[in-house]
Amino acid sequence: MAKKILIPIDLDHERVFDSVFATVKEYANPTETELVLFAVVPQLHLGYFPSIEHRYMHKLVKETKRRLEKLGSERLGDNYKWQALVEGGDPRKRIITAADELGADLIVLASHDPRGSDVIFGSVAAYVVRHAHHSILVVRQRLEAADRSAA
Question: For the chain, how big is the Rg over CA atoms in Å?
Answer without folding.
Answer: 16
